Amino acid sequence: MTHTFDALIALEVPTDGAQSTPDAGPEGPRTVTARTHPAWANMVGPYGGATAAQALAGITADPRAQGRPAALTLNFAAPVEEGTMDIVVDPVRTNRSNQHWTVRIDQESGTVLTGTALLARGRETFTDTELSVPQVPAPADVDITPYQMALPWMENYVFRIVSGVPTAASESSETLMWVSQTQPRPWDHVSLAAACDVFFPRIFARTGTPSPAGTVSYTVYFHTAPEALAAQGEHLLCRAAASRFHEGHFDQIGHVWGEDGELLATTTQLVYFKGV
C-alpha cells in the first residue's frame, strides 16, 4: 500500500513540450505535474507543508539535481486549488559546491507559488551546534494531544505537546512538542520540509482562539545529510515562537531536532492573520 506522503509527492513528466523533457540542457525550465491529495487538505486548500514537499520533490527528482537540500524558500502567491498543478523547476546556476534552483507552481488560475532552493555537496569542515536541545520528557512519557480541529492533514501526524497548547491565551507564543508520522516512514529532506510546517499559527498560542491565518512566506534550512536523516528515530522535537505580531502579520521561528538531539532544521515563516 502506498504511503499517503509518497502518493502526495508522486510526479509525472508531461509529453507536450520540449521544455518538459527530463533530458533538457544543464540549465533551463523543466515542468512536472503533481496533484493535491485529500489526505493533506487544510481549511482552505492543501496543508502548506504538503505543497512545500511537492515543490522540493520537483527539484530533488530532477535528473540534473546535484547535492542535498540545504535551503528552501517559498512564497505563497495565491491559495492552491484542488486538482493538478504544474511544478516548473530550473537549475539557474551550478557551482562546484552548490546548485541554485528556482521553482514555480502554476494552476489554471495562474501562478500560486514562487520560490528558490539551494542544493549543496557536503564536505569536511569545522562542525558545532550552538543551539542547545530543549530538555523534555521522552516521547513515550508525553501523552498524545487530541486534535483541536478536524483537519485531514493533521491525521498524518501524531502530536505530543509538551508546552504551549493553543487552548488558552498566553504571554508566550512558544510551543514545544514531539511529532511523529501516523504511518511510520523514514525521514528524508522532502518529508522534513513538510513537517517543518506542523506548528499551528502562533496567533492561536497567544490568544487561545483560532482565527483565519495563512503562511505567506516559508523557509527551511536543512542541517543534516540524507543518511543521518534517514537514521533518525520516529519522533521529531519541534519548537516554535513568534517575535512580533504587527499589522496583520507575524513571524514564526522554529527548530526541529531528532530524537538523538541533533538539530535537523531551522524554519521561518511570515504569516498573515485577521479577526483579532
Tags for this entry?
single chain, 276 residues, mainly beta, Porin, 2 domains, twelve-stranded antiparallel sheet, 5 helices, 13% helix, globular
Give an account of the 3D structure.
- There is one protein chain.
- The protein has 276 residues and is mostly beta strands.
- It is 13% helix and 36% strand.
- It is built from 5 helices and 12 strands.
- Strands 1, 2, 3, 4, 5, 6, 7, 8, 9, 10, 11 and 12 form a 12-stranded antiparallel beta sheet that branches.
- β4 and β5 form a beta hairpin.
- α2 packs antiparallel against α3.
- The longest helix has 13 residues.
SSE map:
Blueprint: H1 4-8, E1 30-35, H2 48-60, E2 68-76, E3 84-94, E4 98-107, E5 110-120, E6 157-163, E7 175-181, H3 189-195, H4 202-207, E8 213-222, H5 226-230, E9 236-241, E10 245-246, E11 249-258, E12 263-273
Antiparallel strand pairs: 1-3, 2-5, 2-8, 3-4, 4-5, 6-7, 7-9, 8-12, 9-11, 10-11, 11-12
Helix pairs in contact: 2-3
Give a short synopsis of this structure.
This protein has 276 residues and is mainly beta. It has helices at residues 4-8, 48-60, 189-195, 202-207, 226-230, and strands at 30-35, 68-76, 84-94, 98-107, 110-120, 157-163, 175-181, 213-222, 236-241, 245-246, 249-258, 263-273.
CATH architecture call of the largest domain? Beta Barrel
The end-to-end span amounts to: 43 Å
CATH third-level topology of the largest domain? Porin
Mean pLDDT: 93
What is the string of helix and strand elements? HEHEEEEEEHHEHEEEE
CATH superfamily of the largest domain: Acyl-CoA thioesterase, double hotdog domain
What is the total domain count?
A: 2
Low-confidence stretches: none
Classification by helices and strands: mainly beta
Largest sheet: 12 strands, antiparallel
Name the assembly state.
single chain
Evaluate the radius of gyration.
18 Å
Question: What's the CATH C level of the largest domain?
Answer: Mainly Beta
**Count of β-strands:** 12
Quickly count the helices.
Answer: 5
What is the overall shape? Answer: globular
- Share of residues in helices: 10-25%
The portion of residues forming beta strands comes to 35-45%
Pfam family, one: 4HBT_3
Domain Acyl-CoA thioesterase-like N-terminal HotDog: 38-118
Domain Acyl-CoA thioesterase-like C-terminal: 144-272
Region (Disordered): 12-31
